[in-house]
Amino acid sequence: MSRSHTRTRRLAFALAIGLPLAALVVFFAWPVAAMLARGLGPEALGVLGAERTRRLLGTTVQLAAAGTIGSVLFGVPGAYVLYACRFPGRRALRAIATIPFVLPTVVVGVAFRSLLGRDGAYSFLDLDQTTTAIVAAMVFFNFSVVVRTVGTMWAGLDPRTADAARMLGAGPVRVFRTVTLPALRGAVASSACVVFLFCSTAYGIVVTLGGTSTLESEIAVQTFQLNLDAAAAFSLVQFALVALTLTISSRASRATAVAMRPSAEHRLRISDLPSAALTFAVVFGLIVAPMASLAVRSFRQDGQWTLANYRLLATPGKGAAGGITVVEALEHSLRAAAIATAIALAIGVPLAFALSRPTGPARTRRPPEGTGAKRRRVPRGRSPESAALRAIESFAMAPLGVSAVTVGFGFIISLQGPPLYMGDELIPIAQAIIAMPMVLRALLPIMRAIDPRLRDAAAMLGASPARTLATVDAPIMFRGLGLAVGFAFAMSLGEFGASSFLASDDNGTLPVLVSRLLARPGGGNYGMAMAASVILGLATALVMTLSEHTRERNHVPA
Q1: What is the DSSP letter of 29?
Q2: Closest CA to 360 of 251, 502, 455
């Protein structure tokens, strides 16, 4: 490779790393640092020691723990049935179990209100606006996390060890306790930590279902009341809780590897019927029922079947002094999601190209002259360059572990004042920062799978770095681009936590407007919230269906 090509390549690498990092510093690190600095101020520190803070922290941890326990208790049998057993309709059940995870949290909350509220199918349980309803919604939302994480591992376990235990007389429970569970312990612990993280930051579910206050909801309340020091104190506590959860999750994910073999599945046996019955009950009673109730209730008003709720979507609803309609809010959401997706790709794609580059072959490090020391071989991946790239990747993925409410509050105290004085344009920027890690997660595995010899061959044939990028890297990267776009657009379209802080009355997004409709009295507003949630859920599902179709067509691994 010529010296000019080397300089060009280094410059392109520096730009691919430097410009995205600069954007992340301004729109992520700065807001989070501003939140932390304010949370450590004298007035905020006084809030940290208050009894209310301890009570909010206790409630948040208790709800998250209950949601995690429920998700694991239901998800582990579901993982076994949906990934280790073969039966007709398994693929459809897997798809249904995955739907909740891609739905906006506001839609999930509204769906449970339609199911548990007055005239709902589960109204006899008298759980509307209770903590039990919030926990059930958390399980609904995170059931698929446990199923997919544990199920993928379960399907690849070597069955010979369990078969040997059965031949020696061990029953199904003992085989699971002594053979299977130890092999799955790492996957179960890792998924539980992820679920706990999602439950502890479940702002949209708590706000729409009501009945209690958590750290997330209290940050919003204090911000809207302009008690920014109190909001900063609660944000600091929430940040510490998230950081602790991520630390535990990182350790859990480094579990000891187990023997794997592909597609170690079997037909559904009689001994599997209890797990299958529980899984079917969860899928239809906890996942299908709320979504079906939401769809049905959107066509009901005053006990009659009607399209009135959908006709009202062109109005601001009752009890609103002006404001925007649901149709206008949908337009705002689509426009903001499109801009956010473009920003997320502008940051994530260059980073994926740069971070996927090999750090060079193993090399021999020459010792200083006259020391008598032997040459030391430095393995690939342990060079200072690789350490720097790992640090950059960790920083780029950090927004995935920070609460959207924390991001929104950080934007308010850092970017809506001097020196930037930004306004509604912060909505798509915040959505992009939250969605960008998913772009990286979709593209990095594909880019890292490229054989570096393809690039070397192109360079030996005289191709410039730009041509190598266009002819080798770009075609392969495009295979995962559809999935990256789908994740970014769907997450931005349904984002509620940060948008609820940043949206004005005239530029609100659809999730924000749904929450406002639920807060207004009147059956018409409630019906509008149901209809709007159906539209938002369908739009999100359509985006993810198209991206999933693109993934399967291009043979991109899930």
Answers
A1: I
A2: 455
Q: Which of 429, 262, 450 is nearest to 336 (CA)?
A: 429
H-assigned helices in 25-84: 30-39, 42-48, 51-79
- Max Cα-Cα span within the chain: 93
Distance between CA atoms of residues 549 and 485, nearest Å: 13
What is the rounded distance in angstroms from the CA atom of residue 123 to the CA atom of residue 130? 12
**Average pLDDT in the chain:** 84
Q: What does the block give as tokens for 100?
A: 């909740």
29 Cβ neighbours under 8 A, 6+ residues apart: 395
- 3-state SS, one letter per residue, for 70-111: HHHHHHHHHHHHHHHEECCCHHHHHHHHHHHHHCCHHHHHHH
Which residues are within 8 A (CB) of 542 and not within 5 positions of it... i.e. 6 or more apart? none
102-120 per-position pLDDT tens digit = 788 899 999 999 999 888 8
Per-residue pLDDT, averaged over 223-245, amounts to: 90
Query: How far apart, in Å, are the Cα atoms of 126 and each of 8, 430, 547?
Result: 67, 38, 39
Q: Which amino acid is at 434?
A: I
- Distance between CA atoms of 123 and 105, rounded to whole angstroms? 21
Helix H or strand E encompassing 547: helix 523-553
| Strand, helix or coil for residue 464 | coil
375 by Cβ neighbours in 10 Å (0-12 / 13-18 / 19+) ranks as exposed
- CA pair distance 187, 184, nearest whole angstrom: 5
Q: Which of the four pLDDT bands, split at 50, 70 and 90, describes residue 250?
A: confident
The answer for residues whose C-beta is within 8 angstroms of residue 543's C-beta and 6 or more apart is 486, 489, 490, 493
**289-297 helix and 523-553 helix, angle to the nearest 10 degrees:** 130
Q: Which of 22, 13, 18, 20 is nearest to 473 (CA)?
A: 13
Rounding to the nearest 10 degrees, give the CA dihedral for residues 339, 341, 344, 347. -70
Alpha helices in 156-202 (DSSP H): 160-167, 172-175, 181-200
d(CA 39, CA 231): 8
Rounded Cα distance between 515 and 444, Å, is 36
User: 520 Cβ partners below 8 Å, 6+ apart?
Assistant: 317, 318, 319, 320
**What DSSP assignment string belongs to 254-282?**
TPPP--B-TT--EEPPGGGHHHHHHHHHH
| 257 DSSP β-pair partners | none
Alpha-carbon gap, residue 266 to 93, rounded angstroms:
17
Is 558 a residue whose pLDDT tops 70?
no
Residues 36 and 236 sit within 8 Å (Cβ to Cβ): yes
C-alpha 399/C-alpha 12 separation (Å) is 25
